[in-house]
Amino acid sequence: MRQRIPVSDLRVGMRVVELDISWLKSPFWRHAFTIQTQNEITLLRQHCQHVEISVSTKIKGAKSAKQLPSSTQGNSTQKAVDVPQQGMSKPNASIVTHQKIAQAQQHLQQVAGKITDVFDDARTGHALDAPKLQNSVELLTQDVLTDTNSLLLLSQLQNKDQSLSEKSINVCILTLTFAKHLGIKKDQLHQLGLGALLHDIGMLRVPASLLNHKGTLNASQKAIIQQHVIDGVSMVAHHDNLADIKDMIAYHHERYDGSGYPYGLKGRAIPLFARILGITTTYEAMTRERFFSSKTTPTHALSKLYAWRHQLFDGRLVEKFIQALGVYPPGCIVQLNTGQIAIVTEINPEKRTRPVVRLLMSEDKVLLKEQPEINLIMSEYEWIKVQKILDTQELELTKLI
């Protein structure tokens, strides 16, 4: 059951299920969440007059509702989706707010600027700026540890270019997210993140004409490309602060069945961090538009990784990676079987095919004024299914972030 109360009556621990303002004007990424701190109450009092809270765990008849809200324009009203407490995944310790999204985006811009400068200098023969690299990894590690969903959302929704710096940052975010899920100790996260950021640094020595080549590479061209691994190791070998990541650079193209390069290592002869990088770099490459191949959806990329488990990649790590991202990772734009468009905001670890989504567009592809969040794991919404993942650029939904 839902109850409408003035914001002056809010207390920590209350379950908020709807605000009296639109999502675009809200300081919170979600309209449904459990109040964790007094600061969240202060934000609600600054932006809202009333909110609706959950005062029971079940809403009778909710399951019989066979249509989600449609678009609202002008003064028309929209019936809110009931989001009862039962079935909701455990709330995050920190609610994902627009302020957090903005902070994560600011950090990403800072990191992108630093990495671009470092790579540009290295391309012209200058030594790698270890302090800039380490500071960048510290920022990304901090954001992954405190607000993984925001970083994954931004990584998924931003306009992706072909630059080595952007690719490396995305690999770093994915790798740190995966490492967090694996429970890797915090003092090792920095080393892994640094290795992810510099995994392809040797590509700076590959001719641009070859990097931009469209179509199939011949044997000599492949040999030049593969040389980037050796070049990358040499570029970090003489830096005291970077020497520990040599193995990650050297072995991230090795494959579990021995089919990789440059040494043809097999199985657990490949260091753990290199096995992790092999998975995250492959996933990132498949979900990014490249000169020689089109990108695929996150779900299709995960299914391909799953098919390659025990062959190209450590099978246990592949399964853990899918658990970390979910079948529908945060930031995926999906079409529901109702025809409506939604964005995935959170995964449900207990059932990865049933994420938490926020409705964005009606079945007529009209932007919704009110954008309720629903948890597909709840029995009330068992008839709702994710039909397919959509291209964010096609729908121009990045403007919402």
| Percent range for β-strand residues | 5-15%
Tally of strands: 9
Structural class label:
alpha+beta
Share in helix:
40-55%
The averaged pLDDT comes out at 81
Descriptive notes:
The protein is α+β, with helices and mostly antiparallel strands and 401 residues long. The protein is built from twelve helices and nine strands. The strands form two sheets. Strands 8-7-6-5-9 form a five-stranded antiparallel β-sheet. It has a four-stranded antiparallel β-sheet with strand order 1-4-2-3, with no helix packed on it. A hairpin with a 4-residue loop joins β5 and β6. α4 packs antiparallel against α5 (186-197) and α4 (164-182) packs across α9 (272-286). The protein is globular. The two termini are 32 Å apart. The relative contact order is 0.12. Residues 57-96 and 397-401 have low confidence and may be disordered.
